[in-house]
Amino acid sequence: MERILLGHGSGGKLMYQLIREHFVPEFKLKSLNDSAVLKGLNKGKIAVTTDSYVVSPIFFPGGNIGELAVYGTVNDLSMVGATPLYITSGFILEEGFPLEDLKKILTSMSEAAKKAGIKIVAGDTKVVNKGKADGIFINTSGVGIVGENTDISPLKVKPGDRVILSGPIGNHGISIIAERNGLRFNPPVLSDTAPLNVLVKEMLKHTKKIHAMRDPTRGGLATTLKEIANDSKCCITIFEESIPVPSGVRGACELLGLDPLYVANEGILIAIVSADVADSLVKKMRKISVARESCIIGEVTKNPAGMVLLKTSIGGTRMIEMLSGDQLPRIC
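Below the sequence we write its predicted structure tokens.
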């Protein structure tokens, strides 16, 4: 009998297959963006998203499960160009969970909501027997408004587009695995968890020629680009020398045998935009604090369709596939 594996939640190939072979046909899903965009009142559009957070450990360098839940929900709404407005939060608590830790998490969620400019408006709490929930799990739903002329989808990606990355990769995943395994780096690697809605708002003010956006969380930069390539039926070529990898992340990956392209992030985005606005958009993004290191890392071509290619620093070409296993499980 086939069973669920930890890798089915890694954001890679197993999860991709699970969703498309089971959830998509049963729920008749039309789109698998970070948020669903639906028709609202008065011909407007609303974005709706939901997510669950099971990160281990719940406190990590640079953040905790509470602010991660808020920012992750805000960012999923932002990736379809929505202005996030409201969040609900459901808590599954394990018997014996320290109230002091719960208070810290709730306070961080409140502060994160204020920073992101959204409101937590409803919630639910359940308690399960000791040993049945690993401390605390958080589920969120988010609602936002999509502008009238905003239409962001991988289906709009076309040959000639440029690929923009808003910051360095790998910080979140490495901070989690370091804390999980008692590793210490000097300087410490901190999670990049942050809200991206202000950045996206400024990007959309600058141009409407943003064809697709994604935040490369589980599965990292490589898996996210592969998903976009599959959906758009285009080829995405990225350049290794253009991708910012912090020295701490690079060193940790070499030590642990990990590929930074597949390590999770929580405070950066990928934007695929028309070539004629790419340079000016990067200049605009660098003025926003969460995107100081924005850069163009690649381009879109027609063929080979559905492929992601990496031009290496030594002059070769490497084919990029989705994360095939569970390189870093339970990182969000």
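The two ends are 28 Å apart (CA to CA).
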